Amino acid sequence: MSELKQINQHLDSIDNRLNSMENRLESVENRLEIVEFEQQQVKQAVLETNEKINRLAVIQESQHRIIEILSARSIQHEAEIKKINDLQGVV
Question: Who contacts 87 (Cβ-Cβ below 8 Å, separation ≥6)?
């Protein structure tokens, strides 16, 4: 009987350890699900940020072209004003 009692105690101990391991594994799985969810959110945020950056780059390029055009026109106008002033000075 004593041996049987020891075996039962040992099996109970193993059961307790297995239950503890199952609980820890469940905890790890829950944490992993949270990490995966957060990772998906970060991925979505990165994709949205990339979209916005790409749109801003297009807008910036367009503005750069407009500034170049306006700059060229400004230089042209300054040259025309100088011509007019020079012609007025001649007269």
Answer: none
When pLDDT is cut at 50, 70 and 90, the band that residue 76 belongs to is very high
Quote the CA–CA distance of 35 and 74 in Å, as a whole number: 57
Q: How far apart are CA 81 and CA 68, in angstroms?
A: 20
Q: How far apart are CA 35 and CA 45, in angstroms?
A: 15
SS3 22: helix
CA angle 13, 19, 24 (to 5 degrees): 125
Q: What is the pLDDT of residue 90?
A: 67
**Could you tell me the two tokens for 85?**
């002033």
| Predicted local distance difference test score (pLDDT) of residue 88 | 85
Distance CA 2, CA 6 (A): 6
Distance between CA atoms of residues 87 and 84, nearest Å? 5
Q: Cα separations (Å) of 53 from 41, 46, 48, 65?
A: 18, 10, 9, 18
